[in-house]
Amino acid sequence: MHRPLDEILIRIAQGIATTSSSDFFPCFLEQLCDAFEIEYGFIGQVVPGGCAQVETLSAYSRSSTPHILQNFNYELAGTPCQNLFRAEGVCTYTEKLQELFPTDPLLKDLKARSYIGVPLKSSDARGIGLLVLIDTKELGNTEAIISTLELYSGRCASELELQQKNVRLKQIFKATEQSPCSILISDKDGAIEYVNPKFTQLTGYHPEDVLGKNPRILSNPARRANGDQIWKTLESGGEWSGLFHNLKKTGEPFTERATISPIFNEQQEITHFVAVKEDLTSIQDAEVEIRRSEQRFRNLIDQVVDAIILFTPEGDIIDVNKKACSTLGYTREELLEMSVREIDQENSLYSAQPFWSVLPSEIVITVRGHHLRKNKSSFPVEIRMGVFEDSRSTCVIALVRDISDRVAAERELKSQKDLLQNILDNIPHSIVWKDRELKYLGCNKNFALAAGLDSPEQIAGKTDFDLPWHLHEAELYRLCDQQVIDSAAPLLNYEQTQRQAGGRESDVLASKVPLTDESGEVNGVLSIIADITDLKKTQAALDRMANYDDLTGLPNKTLFQDRLNQSLGRSKRRCESLAILSLDLDHFEKINTALGHTGSDQVLKDIACRISSVLRADDTVAKMGGDSFAILLPGLTAEDDSSLVASKILSAMQSPFLIEGNELFISATIGISVFPGDGESAEELLKNATTALNRAKAAGRNSYLLYTQGMNDKVMERISIENNLRRGIQKGELVLYYQPQVDAVANRIIGAEALVRWIHPDKGMISPATFIPLAEETGLIVPLGEWVLRDACRQIRQWKLSGFDCGKISVNIAAQQLMETDLPALVRSVLDEYEIAPTMLSLEITESSIMNDVSKAIAVLQQLKDMGIHLAIDDFGTGYSSLSYLKKFPVDVLKIDRSFVMDLPGNKDDGAIASAIIAMAHNLGLNVLAEGVETPEQLQYLIERNCQVIQGYFFSPPQKAQDYELFQLNDLAKAQGG
After folding, report:
1. What is the pTM of this model?
2. Which of 442, 444, 505 is nearest to 473 (CA)?
3. How far apart, in whole angstroms, are the C-alpha atoms of residue 753 and residue 26?
């Protein structure tokens, strides 16, 4: 027994009312088949490229074998569905179905006897899919089924069209996000709105680090591009291309070749800028895909539900569903007392109603417009209306869909699609993507132009063999694409020659990456093709810049080193000699000052010509930097050949140089080393040539000298001392001596300065003046300084445990300790290790060391001060410190350098300086200590000027620890000899 149609429609509408867009087809088929007790139902879409094949999107079976229809694709030919797109409406076969279509295997597998299908057409009347019902029995109530299919076919077509649009949009998103190019999009004011994953991979900056900021955050301050010129070009609507020298988030420098293009809206106003950048450091193309935008558009279509209204041909409402009540703002009771004319008084969406009585039941009318609610507000709707007749009555069923979300989504989708296509079209590379069958899905404007197409839209469905490539080129492209799809691995950065539509050949750098679906399966390939014709020309220029001096055109240091290594290997194989001449111009800085850069540059060019003029073809002269040159003389037959060449060069220099109308006489000094006598390696020969050059300069310049072994004696002696010092620190050859610091007014010892001494097992006592400067030059001062700090603290603890009051012990801190190590952490660790109070320790820092980096020095000293450490500035008066900084240093004591004390009281200048230091220190609230005091007159002079803390030989020289104990225990007056 058949149910009434209105009951069926209400049941179907209620069943699909709350479905999301993605669940609509399965839910609708289930409701439809169950409502009419039909065995099978499915919805399919036409495969792009024609109406020859259908792909199943959703299927439903009421039997126990639903798998028959799952993932079913088939050809239309020979099936009942082949006539759907020719028909104006529903196609029905209720008799002899299998006899009519004997080649359709599906009908046989399903044991089908009845078939009802309706085409699904897009908004522009294209056939895009079909809705089919199949049963194993002869169907009754076909009129109700047909009416229902006609009623819902529009809804299904709309859902299918939206899904297809979303799929195409996702393809564009994936193509952009998976791009190997670094892409940055900013608004018209330069604020970053989007960066792609390749940008993050290259720079280390995540989107949250850069969004809203200016791209200048990447700029290398030392090599910043001309931003004014860039903006001038872009704001005029032009495109800018060039190099950026940038810094990654880690601070690592890298170079990018960038093209920045403006993006225009329909009014030709600039709305955004897009920058596409290639990392020239590794010569890799960036991947150009815009996955990040995909998330913003994934859910553009919200849940779509329908309001159902049944009314008579005269317009009186018969029934409504709950959605109609909530949508229109009326109660069910109110609507049942009204007509459709009353619920839509202004827009007359239901104006066709006078004609319902004469319209056949297979006609469905679709109306779009704005509908009124009870409160007189309006909303956009799509209404599909059809006549339903049964034995009892005739009525009209209207499906009223609120399409507010769809209208907004369509507007947004179009805007975003246009924006994405605009972005792709403004990227200065060819970008194209294909499906698994290697048919083109889309491309940007650059590729379309290269392929001879009028617009990117014309590429869809074509293959490489449809485009104006040569046959072998098309086959090569096909093979590369197939390799990427089969291996699921990218094919990156391979060069080839491409012949474009106009016949022009270009050098291109191509990259191909697989496109994947949500399950990770490869479903296509993306190609990025960059024209590198200009880049290769630039690379050739860069290669020259890397090996030749811009000013003189001579080989530079890099190329000279390479030629030297090659010549050295050849000379060893052939048992030949070669020589290196290291040449510096004499007093060139005076020429530079007198002539300026232009004149001095001309001098260097002329000198390069004169040197080259006296050399053989196989010889090499290189500019090593500044006014330094190096000459390589391979294949020498005698050692004095190099002397002859040096003599020729000096002779060539004797003639005056005419620069800017002035005659200049310029001389040079040359040092010579000869292989094999003066060294076996390039490094050794260069070093020895430089040594000979320095020796020649010291001898009076304007001459040349050959290298001799005696020049290395002093160097070797220095190396020996350095090695012995390293061993001495490890073997305990160093000891601390303590020089007392005396309060001369109170006549008491207040502490001592710890001074390091080196007692060599063979050479005896080595002066600090010999090994301290060496330690500073080699970096040994850091471990040496740490040893002094530890040993002083060890001795303080030993004195403390024995009950001896040693006073405050001062330790000297070198500049490298202060600036290059975590000094506060070291001091804290040592104090804790030896259980010493910070007040027992004083640290002395030289004035010059704290002036190297004032800000850091203040920060480190403040940390030490906060620990309770006593701080003193040593050698004060020798470092040229600013008084404005002095007041910021958290120190306690100024130590007057011995150079200002040794000639007191006779030297008036030293006396004035010492007096000024004492007065200034007291005014700043600091104590003063004078070191180097050796005579009673010096002591008296300082005491009279209110400097009461004294250190020097007048009281005691530096002493061993046990002698310092005895000294302090003795009567101070006796120590003074009084």
Report:
1. 0.37
2. 505
3. 91
